[in-house]
Amino acid sequence: RFVRDGTLKWNKAFEKVGFRNAVEVKIQPDTASWDADDIRYNVLRWTSSPNPPFGGYGPSFVNPRTGQILGADIMLEYIFITNRIRAGELWDPTAFLPTEAPADQHDGGMTLWHQQNLLFAQTALTAMGADPELRRRLIDESIHYLVLHEIGHTLGLNHNMKATQMLTPAELNDVALTRERGLQGSVMDYPALNVALRGHTQGQFATTTPGPYDLWAIEFGYSPALPDQAQERARLERILARSTEPGLAFGNDADDMRSSGNGIDPRVMINDLSSDAIGYSADRIALARDVMGELDGKYLVNGRSHQQLMDAFFVTGSQIANAAVIASRYIGGVYVDRAMVGQPGATEPYTPVSRADQKRAMKLVADELFAPGAWDVPAGIYNKLQPQRRGFGFFGQPEDPKIHQWVLGLQQGALMHLTHASTLSRIRNTTLYGNTYPLAEMMSDLTAAIFDADRRGSVNGFRRNLQVAYVGRLTAMLSPAGNNPYDFASRAQAYAELRKIRRLESGNSAGDGGTIAHREYVVFLIDKALDT
User: Fold this and answer.
1) Cα–Cα distance between 226 and 223 in angstroms, integer?
2) How far from 130 is each of 199, 267, 283, 319, 320, CA to CA, in Å?
3) H or E, element range at 71
4) Which of 182, 213, 299, 370 has its CA 20 to 30 A from that of 462?
5) Is residue 61 predicted with pLDDT exceeding 90?
6) Got the DSSP string for 287-324?
7) What is the pLDDT of residue 471?
8) Is 463 exposed, middle or buried (0-12, 13-18, 19+ CB in 10 A)?
């Protein structure tokens, strides 16, 4: 019924343009005389692959001469609604961070992300002792959303990664509003699942209706054309003129900021939610830390292996890093408005993110991703992260938890963006049209976030890795000009930050022996870079 109901919801869009019951869904009988591979039938199939590529995908076939969609099929993998996950992905930070290349319409990226969100939501509900009805509703709404998204592709809709900006944080749990309008402007986004903090009202987990953008896109693409060309052109222009309405905001994979250096508008992002993504990220981190404190009590079961605890830990920890990465995109970000000249509701084509929001984002990254205590977890967790043994599954590397490497991989998601040549160049250029968070101040804040807290004591292993990685990024910025993508201002700032770090670390004898050795190594790396 989830698949059926999610598909039929698209009738809402077609009714608006005059078609009743445009979409029908039937269950293939066991006695069917036709084959699901027949291109004349559009089939949604449940599959349970031994090595599923992703949770769902929706390829379509079009007439290359006209663009008319001739047929489409959707595959829905059973792994999407189970607690199973590929063990290799748990140790790979990039499997959970929004740094992969944009996904195509088959949605490998979306369904992987949606499954990880579902796993986290299930973990959170378990940690908070949610009742079975709430857990069932989570699965119901998640499948409903997945089907809505994939059907949207078969109807010709593009991804819309800006759609999650539609509602304020306060509106997200207003069920009367979201059931009618949706949690986001379009089902074609890759949103976070909406899980409320402990003690707060839980609204919908996932959107269950096409959003305002979807209705608008179907109206443009499918409403009957007027016979008079001039009248038809005017009719389409009237539809397009609505593009400045907040619920119709659009930005696709070409514009999104999941990858460092890609895109410029932080609102065009995956796995975020609400018109205040920085605030929502802070709440998400608070929820994840709350959940982290409950894991050993909920996932250590007599007679069972530690696999469930390990899965829950990595999925939860990755939510913390992902939320910080989303916030990091507001640093050096630029809001884009593609409205036409003179169009009602238009703003400036490019508006830098406010200084207040950039500073707020930097503080979140510093406190929740980089700080000395950011990865302090409840005692007795790290030594229990043991995968269940399956035959010869440990070929290639020893099985012990690689915690330091994993955390550094998570931190790199924000660090690479904040030190990317495109980001630094954009910060400099945007000072010409409104950015009041200049490059020198941003880089100084970043250096302080990574080094200042350790000046009078020992440096823990997570911070040592981070500091060496940061120095490595700065020294790379000073490489010979022929292969260097950084502009001169960025190189000059990197030089200044390296000299500042050298002054801080040189001769500092505070802390344990490992810390002193680490500081000497940092100075050695800087001296080597500056000498060359």
Assistant:
1) 9
2) 11, 32, 19, 20, 21
3) strand 69-72
4) 299
5) no
6) HHHHHHTTHHHHH--TTS-SHHHHHHHHHHHHHHHHHH
7) 98
8) buried
The encoded tokens of residue 370 equal 């980089």
167, 184 Cβ separation under 8 angstroms: yes
- Reported as a single tens digit per residue, the pLDDT across 238-289 is 999 999 999 999 999 988 998 888 899 999 999 999 999 999 999 999 999 9
Structural contact between residues 96 and 321, judged by C-beta atoms closer than 8 angstroms: yes
What whole-number distance in Å separates Cα of residue 196 and Cα of residue 173? 8
Phi then psi for residue 311, to 5 deg, are -60, -50
d(CA 90, CA 385): 11
The answer to whether 386 and 314 are in contact (CB under 8 A) is no
Left, alpha or beta for 447 (phi > 0: left; psi -120 to 50: alpha)? alpha
Apex 204 CA angle, 200 and 208, nearest 5: 170
Task: List C-alpha distances in Å: 5 to 26, 138, 210.
Answer: 11, 15, 12
Tokens (6 digits) for 183? 């949690």
Residue 138, token pair as written in the block: 């989570």
Rounded CA separation 129/223 (Å) = 48
- Beta strands in 194-349, from DSSP E residues, in sequence order: 334-336
287 close to 316: Cβ distance less than 8 angstroms:
no
CA distance 517 to 33: 75
Element holding 44 (H helix, E strand): strand 44-47
What DSSP designation does 104 have?
A: -
Q: Are 361 and 327 a contacting pair, CB within 8 Å?
A: yes
Q: pLDDT grade, residue 85 (50/70/90)?
A: low
Q: Is 405 strand, coil or helix?
A: helix
3-state secondary structure of 210: coil
Distance CA 355, CA 434 (A): 9
* CA–CA dist 407, 404 (Å, integer): 5
